[in-house]
Amino acid sequence: MPFTLRKAVFPCAGLGTRFLPATKAQPKEMLTLVDKPLIQYGVEEALAAGIPDILVITSRGKSSIEDHFDFSPELESALQQKGKTKLLEEVKAVSDLISIGFVRQKRALGLGHAVRCARDMVGDEPFAVLLPDDIIRSETPALLQMKGVFQQLGASVIALMRVPREEISAYGVVEATPHPFPGPPNRLFRLHGMVEKPSAQDAPSDLAIIGRYILMPEIFRFLDATETGAGGELQLTDAIRNMLAEFPVFGYVFEGTRYDAGDKFGYLQATLDFALHHPELGTRFAAHLRTKQATL
Ligand code: G1P
Questions:
Q1: Whose CA is nearest to atom 7 of ligand 1?
Q2: What percent of the chain has pLDDT over 90?
Q3: Atom of ligand 1 nearest to the CA of 133
Q4: What is the pLDDT of residues 129-161, one digit of tens each?
């Protein structure tokens, strides 16, 4: 069953330095976006793509992630006693649906290294990688869009987004040619190269890698053979580039709005968007913003 996708890896071992001091004693993946921690958005996206097996790569100080997805008997019985059934359902919903495992990345040696830590639990099958601070709001969950492409092509697919030149050096950037795709033009690309965090002049295109990947298991072999790259870290981008020599890899420009919620400004933008679209808070919040706008 080469095209089944059952497992999703969440690298969560980063230090979150861009969000200090909030992330000093709290994992950035647990920062709240309206009423859920960032990582829950990613986990729900994986579930919506039919992927129930979640593997979180953690490090010291990240145990609240484990607690969040664990059962919470005291809280659940308190909510039950108080008759707060809706809240009870919300608290239980995600933990009931997923199977979750944790692996410790003992040292912060880079995204490539974090993914490599998943090897034993992933085994010899394709898997997804979701970077929890890349938050995507879309009608069809981004990973589900990518899964469709993956199942058609039977090859690795990574998420892409066009980024202005002046911001491109914050990303992995691909060299690509359009590939036929039933749908809007310039969505699917065959990748020929990629570089992690190039300078604006050296960037091969304006197509940046966003933190959603569907990878064939061969990536582990390439991760083993890849040298330390940008920032002195083992880069996933470098291993995927090395894989291109032997295996096709596609890039897919997903439909939706992406926020870099690991950055203070991006987090504020995401908060605004998700608050405005929240089923219970949206209307009230929009009215509040309109009154605020008058004072700006
Ligand atoms: C990581 C990847 C990079 C990608 C980015 C998207 O970088 O290494 O290729 O463009 O995520 O958010 P990071 O933001 O962790 O430095």
A1: 171
A2: 76
A3: 12
A4: 999 999 999 999 999 999 999 999 999 999 999
Instruction: Name the burial class of residue 151, with classes exposed (0-12), middle (13-18) and buried (19+) by CB atoms within 10 angstroms of its CB.
Output: middle
What are 68-81's pLDDT values in tens digits?
888 788 888 888 88
**High-pLDDT (> 70) share of the chain, %:** 99
CA of 9 to the centre of ligand 1 (A): 15
pLDDT tens-place string over residues 217-239: 999 999 999 999 998 999 999 99
Verify whether ligand 1 is closer than 6 Å to residue 13 (CB atom).
no
Give which of 266, 273, 271 is closest to 131, Cα–Cα.
266
Q: Beta-carbon neighbour count of residue 200 at 10 Å?
A: 13
Q: How far apart are CA 13 and CA 128, in angstroms?
A: 17
252 within 8 A of 191, measured Cβ to Cβ: no
Contacts of 283 (CB under 8 A, 6+ apart): none
Q: How far is the CA of 81 from the centre of ligand 1 (A)?
A: 45
Name which CATH class applies to 7-262: alpha beta
Which of 209, 235, 237, 249 is the pocket-test mutation for ligand 1 (most atoms within 8 Å of CB)?
209
CA of 76 to the centre of ligand 1 (A): 37
pLDDT tens string 37-46:
999 999 999 9
Where are the domains positioned within the chain? 7-262, 263-296
131 CB under 6 A from ligand 1? yes
Nearest ligand 1 atom, CA 172: 9
Burial 280-290 (b: 16+ CB within 10 A, else e): eeeeebeeeee
Rounded to an integer, what distance in angstroms lies between the CA atom of residue 74 and that of residue 231?
A: 44
pLDDT band, very low/low/confident/very high, at 94 (cuts 50, 70, 90): confident
